[in-house]
């Protein structure tokens, strides 16, 4: 795996499931957590379902746009998106939108293992030449950082709202698969997410 | 889902890029998305690529049973739009409004090229 090129001469390779549990343990204000396709949402589910979790089962690349929408709709709520490197490579334009709109309550965590893991570990550009942190900074997300190790992750998460704008954290992770298996029930996922955000319908007569 | 309602606006060729988002997010999650697509590729198009992609639009929507209405004139537009947006929310289903050149007058560049 190529070394990252911005501000992180040495990073520890972490584990997605561990990092996700670590993140979830540090939430305490009903933050919305949007997790992208594949192992990213499996590990969020495995960390323990929360009413404010959204599990994206299809639409690869759209976790950040979904999270942006939630962040704009609920500016007083912290919104965190967990996304893989392969997925964000499909939707790099959204980083420019986020950099331009600058939602201060949005935190992006990119789990970068340099592979399209769930389809057979095909190599992604992030393993060779693409530096997600450099791309994010170039897109206007000035507060973009490589995660050096677990302690650094804790520090970055604790400080994320001090930035006054969107934050992107990129973590190099290993190639272990997700440890959970999110139930594939999209309408239930949406219903529970909206209940968790306080925007759900109470009855079929609500519009 | 966060409590705001929005409208997504795009051109025909923009619509052609979102098939996966429609089919794997909006439809299965039953999101009442309101889309407005300005129709290009018909009634005076000069670019064959645009003409071809315009033909994919309605079949794609029909294949995933998404309600769509082509708006052609000012007289019927208010009724169609008002009722359809209400229906989108009462049925928790997306709706697509296609703005025909009959309504918009089409691409102003086309008028120059087709003289």
Helix share, percent of chain B: 40-55%
- The gross shape of chain A turns out to be globular
Number of DSSP strand runs of chain B: 4
Distance between the termini of chain A: 50 Å
Q: What is the CA–CA distance across the termini of chain B?
A: 48 Å
Which percent range describes the beta-strand content of chain A?
A: 15-25%
- The arrangement of helices and strands of chain A along the chain is HEHEHEHHEEEHEHEH
Q: What profile does the largest beta sheet of chain A have?
A: 6 strands, parallel
Count of helical segments of chain B? Answer: 6
Q: Give the C-alpha Rg of chain A.
A: 16 Å
Notes on the structure:
The complex is a heterodimer of chains A (207) and B (115). Chain A is an alpha/beta fold. In chain A, strand 5 (115-116) and strand 6 (122-123) form a beta hairpin. In chain A, the strands form 2 sheets. Chain A has a 6-stranded parallel sheet with strand order 2-1-3-4-8-7. Chain A has helices at residues 16-25, 39-46, 63-73, 85-90, 93-101, 132-138, 150-158, 186-197, and strands spanning 32-35, 53-55, 79-84, 106-112, 115-116, 122-123, 143-146, 167-172. Chain A is globular, with a radius of gyration of 16 Å. Chain A is built from 8 helices and 8 strands, in the order αβαβαβααβββαβαβα. By secondary structure, chain B is an alpha/beta fold. Chain B has 6 helices and 4 strands. Chain B has helices spanning 12-15, 19-26, 48-63, 77-91, 101-104, 108-113; strands at residues 7-11, 34-38, 67-71, 95-99. Chain B has a 4-stranded parallel sheet with strand order 1-2-4-3, with helices on both faces. The longest helix of chain B has 16 residues, at 48-63. Chain B is globular, with a radius of gyration of 15 Å. The termini of chain B are far apart. The model of chain B has no long low-confidence stretch (mean pLDDT 94). The A-B interface holds A 32, 54, 56-60, 62, 66, 69-74, 186-187, 189-190, 193-194, 197-199, 207 and B 1-4, 6, 20-21, 23-25, 28-31, 86, 89-90.
């Amino acid at each position: 795996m190529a070394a990252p090129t911005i501000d992180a001469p040495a990073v520890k390779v972490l584990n997605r499931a561990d990092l996700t549990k670590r993140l979830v343990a540090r939430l305490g204000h009903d933050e919305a957590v949007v997790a992208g396709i594949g192992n990213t949402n499996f590990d969020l589910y495995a960390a323990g379902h929360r009413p404010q979790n959204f599990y994206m089962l299809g639409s690869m690349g759209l976790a950040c746009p979904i999270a942006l929408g939630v962040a704009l709709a609920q500016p007083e709520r912290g919104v965190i998106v967990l996304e893989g490197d392969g997925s964000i490579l499909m939707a790099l334009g959204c980083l420019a939108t986020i950099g331009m709109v600058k939602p201060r309550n949005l935190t992006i965590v990119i789990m970068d293992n340099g592979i399209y893991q769930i389809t057979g570990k095909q190599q992604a550009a992030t393993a060779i030449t693409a530096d997600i942190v450099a791309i994010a900074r170039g897109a206007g997300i000035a507060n973009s950082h490589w995660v050096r190790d677990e302690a650094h992750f804790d520090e970055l998460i604790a400080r994320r709202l001090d930035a006054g704008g969107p934050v992107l954290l990129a973590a190099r992770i290993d190639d272990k698969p997700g440890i959970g298996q999110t139930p594939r029930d999209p309408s239930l996922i949406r219903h529970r997410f909206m209940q968790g955000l306080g925007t759900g319908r109470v009855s079929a007569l609500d519009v | 889902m966060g409590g705001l309602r929005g409208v997504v606006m795009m051109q025909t060729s923009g619509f052609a890029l979102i098939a996966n988002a429609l089919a794997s997010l909006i439809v299965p999650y039953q999101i009442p998305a309101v889309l407005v697509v300005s129709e290009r590729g018909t009634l005076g198009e000069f670019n064959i690529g645009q003409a071809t992609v315009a033909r994919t639009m309605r079949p794609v929507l029909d294949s995933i049973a998404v309600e769509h209405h082509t708006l052609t004139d000012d007289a019927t537009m208010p009724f169609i739009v008002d009722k359809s947006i209400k229906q989108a929310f009462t049925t928790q289903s997306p709706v697509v409004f296609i703005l025909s050149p009959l309504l918009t007058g089409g691409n102003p560049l086309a008028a120059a090229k087709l003289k």
